[in-house]
Amino acid sequence: MRNRLPEQLPFRQPYMRLNHTEVLSADEIETIHEASLTILERIGMEFLCPESRSIMREAGAQVDESNSRVRFPRELIERAITTAPSEFTLHSWNPARNIRVGGRWMAFGTVASAPNYVDRNGVRRIGDREGFRDLLKLAQMLDAIHYVPGYPVEPVDIHSSIRHLEASYDILTMTDKGLHCYSLGRQRNQDCIEMVRIARGVDMATIDREPSVMTVVNTNSPLRLDIPMAQGMIEFARHNQPVVVTPFTLAGAMAPITLGGALAQQNAEALAGIAFMQIVNPGSPVMYGGFTSNVDMQSGAPAFGTPEYVRTAMISGQLCRRYGVPYRSSNVCAANTLDAQAAYESVFSLWGAVMGGVNFLMHGAGWMEGGLHASMDKMLMDADLLQMVAKMLEPVQVDADSIPIDTIEEVGPGGHFFGTAHTQSRFRDAFYRPFLSDWRNYETWDEAGRPTADQRSHGLVDRFLAAYEPPAMDPEVQAELRAFVDRRIAEGGVATDF
Questions:
Q1: What is the pLDDT of residues 434-492, one digit of tens each?
Q2: 272 Cβ neighbours under 8 A, 6+ residues apart
Q3: Domains in the chain: how many in total?
Q4: What is the domain range of residue 290?
Q5: One domain for residues 277 and 411
Q6: Residue 13: what pLDDT?
Q7: What is the pTM of this model?
Q8: In this structure, are 409 and 341 located in the same domain?
């Protein structure tokens, strides 16, 4: 019994049944929108990739080659973003793991892109393949996680020229959940698209019809888009694969210190990226990424889970609904260890994302230290939170069966409901039981050695890892995938300078 894994909710996407939190009025949202258009029209953005500037010039933007500055007539932005789809399906090689993105659907992803991780001995280590694979195993085992939106930790012991090949191979063979591709130059995108095509066992025409791999593009805030990111956007747009356009706007550092100013800049950069995608290929799937927070003005360190983060997460959702595009947000914290700070900042971040109407939750499980390390124990804690969110969003049954007047009469004043037939027939599935909650009273706490939540999480992670089994990929498909990776490695992978 002690080694049995806890029961999980089945793998399924939550659906937002609550009203979204509207922090700003419709007029205030329009004020941000108009300010964003003014920024793009008067100040513009630097597009460092010459190809991207040519595309924008042909579309009617004003391009200054002397400083790579692109200025956008507001009618160009407003016209272009109307072709972005409001909802799409993101396909996995296992169709049971397909996810819907947009509308009121939610999808939860793992932590991504951390440079360090905490190993099973509690040691903070530079990312390596061993830690990367352990995080993938846990992600596969946790049904609250729907997607792997990047490397949970960067496996730096794999050379950067071939890292995307080996890491993508691990994700595709060790999990059957969706794949992310880093937009670090065109060739990486082409390789990942081909690997997904092989894993799905389809032709390229099907891939071009059915989004199957996503990428996140962070603008270089303030107001710059670099060469490899632009190349990735062009490649993905041409193949109809989704791009999450995410400005990284920390108020007081890479954006104005006021929330209104930071949001206007975030919105300008996001709209420029979305418009660029639609100009390359009208109708290509995109997501609007909201990642505005603040910095600690004494140290300059990013702060997460703050009131400012929560409010901007909700307002970003309002802006997405204004434009009719799917919304990406994050579950983040700045804590260095699994303490009360990690818990309350994550709950606060998650609440802002959920009530803001998030469709795709990046860093949903395992993010620590402002993104500087990934934690398997935190991943399990966050999965517990994500299941609680999913349970909270289930519809409440209100009918004759759920309001048992006869049972209430049977118990009468001063009785209890433990032994009634109504309770006994439902007690196993009546309530969600969190993984890590300990509801024993203080007098019986010593029976199990007073384990704290982080200690219980650590033990559960070990049990999940021990129970891991890889998904059943067709051996011929896996062999073809391995052959492609080996061939591309033999060819030298990709250049590591841009």
A1: 888 877 787 777 666 678 889 999 999 999 999 999 999 999 999 999 999 999 999 99
A2: 40, 45, 70, 72, 77, 219, 225
A3: 2
A4: 1-395+432-498
A5: no
A6: 98
A7: 0.96
A8: no
